[in-house]
Amino acid sequence: MVQANPIGNPERAADRGDPVIGRHAGPVGRVFRVITGLVGFLPVFIILRGLSTTEVVVGLVWFVVVAAVVVAALALMRPWLAGRESGGLTGFVGSAILLLPMAAYPMGLLPEAPTIGLRLYTDFSVTLSGLIGYGGLEMAALPSLVLGHRPVLYSQYNMVDLVERRTLTSGRSPLAVLAGVLGVLGFAWFWTMQFWFTTVPEFVTGSPDARVPEVPAAVAPFAAAAIVLAGLLLLLIDRRAAAGRRWWWPLGAVVVVFGIGAPVGAMPDALYAVIILAGAVIGVRRLLARRRPAA
C-alpha cells in the first residue's frame, strides 16, 4: 500500500482523519513555532528600546494596520481558499500571493515604522500559530481566528511538520525517531538558537558588544550535519519500506538540501522563495488548465 501524498489534497486527508500539512501543526511544530516567534520578538524590542515614545506608538499603529490588511486580504481570498487543493488559491498559490508583498521588508524597501509593524506582526503570527495549532502560513493565523476558517497555506515551518509527520507515520521506528530528533534540533538551531547568542546578550545588556557570534559560527556545521543526516535517514527509511516510496522520499532529499545550504545562510528564509516560485508555477498551470477546452 502506497501512502498518501503528505501535502496532497486536504479534503481527502480530512476525510481520512489525517492532519493536513498547511493547516494542522503537531505538538512539535506548535512548540517550535511558539519558541521561534518569541525569540523573534527580541530584535524588534531592541529596536523599539532605542526609539522615542512617538516612534514606538507609530510602530504599534503600523502593526494594527498590517494585521487589518492581512485579515481583509484573507477575507477577500476566502472564496478561492475553501476549495480543493487542485484548484483555486489553496496551497502554494495563495501562499505566494501573500508572501510577495512581504518581500519588500527583507529587501529594505519599507520605511522604519512600517517595517517595525510588519516585524511585530510576523513574530506575533508565528507565536500565535503555535498557540492555536495552525500549521499554515503564519501570516494567516490571526485571520483564521477572526474569520473562523483555516486555509491550507504553506510556510517554511512545514519542514518541521513534515519531519514530525514522517516520524509518526513510520510507526515511530528507531531510525525515524532519530531522524526526527536530529532534524528538529538542526532546524531549531538555524531558526532559533543561533539568534539567542547574537540577540539575547544585547537585549539584556543593551550593548551590541555583548553578542557572541563565534558560538553560532562554531555550532553551525554540526547543526547542518545533523539535518543532512536526518535527511539521509529519511531516504533510508523510504528505501526499506514498500509503503511511502512514492511520496515521502522527496522529503528526505529536501532535508538534505536544507542542511547543505543552512550554514551559508541560504536557509531557512530561502524556503519562502521556493514557496513563491512554486506558487507562480502552479498558478500558471491552473490558469492554462482552465483555458484548455474540454475534450
TrEMBL record:
<dbReference type="Pfam" id="PF19948">
    <property type="entry name" value="DUF6410"/>
</dbReference>
<feature type="transmembrane region" description="Helical">
    <location>
        <begin position="57"/>
        <end position="77"/>
    </location>
</feature>
<dbReference type="InterPro" id="IPR045637">
    <property type="entry name" value="DUF6410"/>
</dbReference>
<feature type="transmembrane region" description="Helical">
    <location>
        <begin position="175"/>
        <end position="197"/>
    </location>
</feature>
<feature type="transmembrane region" description="Helical">
    <location>
        <begin position="247"/>
        <end position="264"/>
    </location>
</feature>
<feature type="region of interest" description="Disordered">
    <location>
        <begin position="1"/>
        <end position="20"/>
    </location>
</feature>
<keyword id="KW-0472">Membrane</keyword>
<protein>
    <submittedName>
        <fullName>Uncharacterized protein</fullName>
    </submittedName>
</protein>
<feature type="transmembrane region" description="Helical">
    <location>
        <begin position="31"/>
        <end position="51"/>
    </location>
</feature>
<feature type="transmembrane region" description="Helical">
    <location>
        <begin position="89"/>
        <end position="108"/>
    </location>
</feature>
<feature type="transmembrane region" description="Helical">
    <location>
        <begin position="270"/>
        <end position="288"/>
    </location>
</feature>
<keyword id="KW-0812">Transmembrane</keyword>
<keyword id="KW-1133">Transmembrane helix</keyword>
<feature type="transmembrane region" description="Helical">
    <location>
        <begin position="128"/>
        <end position="147"/>
    </location>
</feature>
<feature type="transmembrane region" description="Helical">
    <location>
        <begin position="217"/>
        <end position="235"/>
    </location>
</feature>
